[in-house]
Amino acid sequence: xxxxxxxxxxxxxxxxxxxxxxxxxxxxxxxxxxxxxxxxxxxxxxxxxxxxxxxxxxxxxxxxxxxxxxxxxxxxxxxxxxxxxxxxxxxxxxxxxxxxxxxxxxxxxxxxxxxxxxxxxxxxxxxxxxxxxxxxxxxxxxxxxxxxxxxxxxxxxxxxxxxxxxxxxxxxxxxxxxxxxxxxxxxxxxxxxxxxxxxxxxxxxxxxxxxxxxxxxxxxxxxxxxxxxxxxxxxxxxxxxxxxxxxxxxxxxxxxxxxxxxxxxxxxxxxxxxxxxxxxxxxxxxxxxxxxxxxxxxxxxxxxxxxxxxxxxxxxxxxxxxxxxxxxxxxxxxxxxxxxxxxxxxxxxxxxxxxxxxxxxxxxxxxxxxxxxxxxxxxxxxxxxxxxxxxxxxxxxxxxxxxxxxxxxxxxxxxxxxxxxxxxxxxx
Length: 428
What we know:
Blueprint: E1 2-9, H1 15-21, H2 25-38, E2 43-48, E3 52-59, H3 67-77, E4 90-93, H4 95-105, H5 117-132, H6 137-156, H7 166-174, E5 186-190, H8 194-205, E6 210-214, H9 218-227, E7 231-233, H10 238-244, E8 247-250, H11 261-271, E9 276-280, E10 297-301, H12 302-372, H13 377-407, H14 414-421
Parallel strand pairs: 5-6, 5-8, 6-7, 8-9, 9-10
Antiparallel strand pairs: 1-3, 1-4, 2-3
Binding site for NADP(+): 191-196
Subunit structure: Homodimer.
Pfam family, one: GlutR_N
């Protein structure tokens, strides 16, 4: 039994290359079906995210595609030339492939280590493979074990509880200091770029309902509001929206101060000293520093939040060795179990074969002896026990060696040798 992985990720492949290989859900479904038709004896799970495209395949030794065939399949699916593609992909097999899968699921291989989204993406990829019938015993075991490992890392380390991006710290750590809930708060998000989009996701996840997205390009604001949540509002309404806001998050790419102290004075007077939290995530800053000195206004700049990010990153790094230890331990256990399971059919067939031969010889011997003398019950029992001991003694050395070879990853090739020597077939 062999597990393989081929693909690319953000660590070794540019985004342009990853985009060429990426799959939509519908495309992934088609690919899984095509793989089954091309390699009927093999299993596959296809993981495609913005940061990685990876094929995980499983099969009995010799029944699945090799490295070249997997690259050819991927090239065909994405209409890319095979020549040169193989050199741009990462290929792993055996324990290395398992360790990689466990590392991915535990979010230790993510662009932002500890981000929670990847485990749900791994789960969705596995569920799609199950629905299509392309998963099998080996991939079932591998991906279920990966889920177990991710839960262990989450439970036994604090990696996932340490936020390291500015938006995640802003929404997850600063806002809760001021508001028990965001469900009833009026929120104005200024800017709809990458930072604004990420912040919007965190706000929606945190339970915000009343979010107004303001951007100079109304089209961009409408796009992320439709995809994630909130309502796009015209840029000229900004001052009016700020007057009614409980929380303002600003993420524009403006080169000059967006809201000066003089401009905000009018807004502030219309607010009647209601509490206002401003998270200025822009560089350069969108809000004049002096605004934070006004009554009932709390202004945080990106520098204030960055220090929290760096502190959390240091704490995550402290947890890294512990998380890696969990992954190494679980990988060794999985591979050992896999090797022992691979020996099961051979041991069973070898014992069945020996039992059949024993019964045939006992029947022949008893028939001859019954013609010569009358055997008592005890004598019959003694003969049967002698045959059992003989069979067990003959089988013990090869089976003991086979178990030792399994513990070493079948490096000695005894599994194949026993199949050949005793004419055993897993399919029988």
